[in-house]
C-alpha cells in the first residue's frame, strides 16, 4: 500500500486556518505564538524545497506543539457550558490537535523523501550497521598459510610472540 502524497502547503494552510479559528476567543496568546511559530517554520520548509533541516524543524515543532496544546487544553478548558463562539473555537482547536499526528506522519515522509536519515545521534556510542569494515571468514589472508596459521615468524623463540 502506497502512502498518498500530501502537499506541505496543504498541511501548513490547514493548520494555519484551524489555529486562527482555534485562537479567536478562549485560548491564551501562548497557544497562538507557539502554533504560528511552528507554521512559520513550515513556510520556510515550503520555500526551501531541498532543505532537510527545515522539514525536520517543522516536524519537531509539530511534535512539541502536540504536547503544548494538550497542556493548554488541560489548563484553560473551562468546566462551564460554552456559548456558540467558544464552542466553535474549542472545536477547531481540538480538531487542530487531532490532525497534528497525521500531519507529522506525512511531514516525516517528506523528510525521508528529501534525504533525511532517521538515525538520531545524541553523542552516545552506538552500534553501526556499516558492514564494509568486516572481513569474510570464508576468505583467508594471503600472508597466512595452513602450516603457519597464527602468522608467527619461523625463527622466533617459542615463548616470544611477534606482532
From TrEMBL:
Bias-annotated ranges (Polar residues): 136-155
Keyword hit for Membrane: yes
Single biological process term from Gene Ontology: regulation of blood pressure
TM regions (residue ranges): 7-24, 54-76, 88-108
Pfam families to which the protein is assigned, alphabetical: AGTRAP
Keywords: Membrane, Transmembrane, Transmembrane helix
Membrane topology, record value: Multi-pass membrane protein
Entry protein name: Angiotensin II receptor-associated protein
Amino acid at each position: 500500500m502506497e502512502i498518498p502524497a500530501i502537499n506541505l502547503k496543504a498541511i501548513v494552510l490547514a493548520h494555519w486556518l484551524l489555529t486562527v479559528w482555534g485562537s479567536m476567543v478562549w485560548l491564551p496568546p501562548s497557544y497562538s505564538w507557539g502554533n504560528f511559530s511552528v507554521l512559520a517554520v513550515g513556510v520556510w520548509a515550503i520555500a526551501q524545497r531541498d532543505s532537510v533541516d527545515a522539514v525536520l524543524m517543522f516536524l519537531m515543532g509539530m511534535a512539541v506543539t502536540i504536547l503544548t496544546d494538550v497542556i493548554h487544553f488541560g489548563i484553560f478548558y473551562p468546566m462551564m457550558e460554552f456559548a456558540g463562539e467558544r464552542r466553535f473555537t474549542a472545536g477547531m482547536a481540538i480538531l487542530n490537535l487531532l490532525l497534528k499526528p497525521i500531519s507529522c506522519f506525512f511531514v516525516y515522509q517528506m523528510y525521508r523523501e528529501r534525504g533525511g536519515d532517521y538515525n538520531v545521534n545524541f553523542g552516545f556510542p552506538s552500534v553501526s550497521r556499516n558492514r564494509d569494515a568486516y572481513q569474510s571468514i570464508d576468505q583467508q589472508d594471503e600472508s597466512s598459510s595452513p602450516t603457519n596459521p597464527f602468522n608467527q615468524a619461523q625463527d622466533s623463540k617459542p615463548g616470544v610472540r611477534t606482532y
